[in-house]
Structure formats: C-alpha cells, structure tokens
Amino acid sequence: MKAIAYTEFGGAEVLQLVDRPEPHIGPDSVLVKVVAAGLNPVDYKVREGYLEGLIDTHLPAVPGWDVAGVVVKPGLDTPELAEGDEVLAYARKDTVSDGTLAEYVAVPVRTAAKKPAGLSFEAAAALPLAGLTAQQTVRRAGVTAGQTVLVHAAAGGVGSIAVQLAVRAGATVVGTASPGNHDAIRALGATPIAYGDGLVAAARAEAPDGFDVILDYVGGQAIDTAPDLLAPGGTIVSITDARARTELGGHYVWVRPDPEGLAELAALAADGSLRVEIAGTYALADAAEAYRALETGHTRGKIVVTP
C-alpha cells in the first residue's frame, strides 16, 4: 500500500511517499480503507522530535491519528463493527508507527465510532482529535448554563468546536482570535476579541467580574493573563501548559480516545448542529505540502488528506 512515512526526525521535507505492507490487525482491531485522514499539530511536533520521552516513535513512522474510512476486515473480537461499516476514529496507539496517512490503517475498536450517513468522510476525518479535545475540556471544566467562558484560539480546529459546545451548554462565550477571524467567531455564537497587548482590558470589558471558565488551546499569554481574568472560584483548563494545574489550580487535559463521545460529536455534525470547517484537502502524495500549510499556524479549520 502507499503511505507517507519518515525515517528521521525533522521538518516536512523528511516526509516521503513509500510502499508499506498492509497493516496486521489484532483481535480487537479492524482494518480500515482510508478515505480521509485529518492532520493535527501534534503530528509535526512528534515528527520533529519534540515529544520524545512522552510518546515513543518507531522509525520509519507513518504519522496521523485521525481517520475516516470503511472497514474491510474485522478482527476476531470486534462485535461493534463489521465489514463495510463506515467509521471515524481517533486511532491513537501507544506508539507512533503505523498511522492514518496511508491507504489502509489498523484501528483499535476502542477508538472508533460508526460514521453517520449524513456526515462526509472529510468532515468525519477532521473531527476526532479536535472534537474530543474540545468535548473533554468543556466537560472537565464543568461548563453550564449561565457561566461566562473565555476560549483561547477560538478560530482553531479545537477552539471553534469548544465555542460551539459551550454555547450549546448555555454559556456566554468570548473567544480570542486574530481580527481576520472575528466574523467566523461571531458566526459560532461567541464575542471575539484580539490577542496582544490589549487582551486583558478587552476581556474584562466583556466580563467585568471575570470568567467562570477559561479554556486554553494556545498557551503563553493565555496562561500568563489567567490570574487577571478568572472570576473568584473560576476554573482554567489547558491542553498546552501544565501551569494551569500546578500553579492555577485548574486542569491539564491530554485527550483520550472515546467512541461514545466521538459518536455524539459525529451525530451533532451530521445533523448540522456542530460546524466542522475544512481549511483544505490534499492528495496523499502532497502530504508534505499539507503539513507546511498547517505549520504556518494561520489556517482556519482542519486540513484533510485523501489517499
């Protein structure tokens, strides 16, 4: 099969289109023919060696954790899924080796959900990691109706979904984003404010008593300004900086596979209740170009590769 792989750590230039053996599946996995695979920033952080010691990488490695496709071979103990089922998955394994940027991938059933008929494969592939991250951070923070919530990086893949989930929960939401993304933030039901020197003043103007919840998907200034923006008794949740937990008494979240949560998100996306924005779609052979676009940090929505 064709796959994208790298034999050494480095930039997008180390990615190559190669021939690989079709993956073996264990008793609790299914073989999926990949229709679309979603890219995430963690992919290139692993590829550049930044997460060594946290995630083991076995070279040569195929990147990618997000996938949507069709089951072509079930394992010996996978009663949840059958041949021909359309699925989406946050197919993260214990090591990085055989990822989703390939024509076929072995998917543990503990990571997968059936794809609703009304959801495109591209949108399904864009949803797993970003959607589950947003869902799990919103739930960890305990967002409820009547609260005021600040979402950092609100136009990004995770932030845009978190905004929608917080709005669905009945919260008043403010989102940080560059000015070019402010209309998109408004369309999601939140009030946009800009990053930069005036962040604290702009945020306080929207929430004079502080925020009940801060959701951090970018780090840096988001953590530095949190003490000035949290309401008494407020909670901060971060996916980027452990200071949220160690210094601010909040939470640090490392997203986990969750088929039930993924199915819930997919259903919302299929019926139009949850918007999943696609920033661009690339062929498998153009995966390096796709990652270069992602690594600019200026894309709105998710980038998808279609083998």
Automatic annotation (TrEMBL):
SUPFAM superfamilies: GroES-like, NAD(P)-binding Rossmann-fold domains. It comes from Cellulomonas triticagri. It comes from the Bacteria. This is NADP-dependent oxidoreductase. SMART domains: PKS_ER. Residues 10-305 form the Enoyl reductase (ER) domain. GO terms for molecular function: oxidoreductase activity.
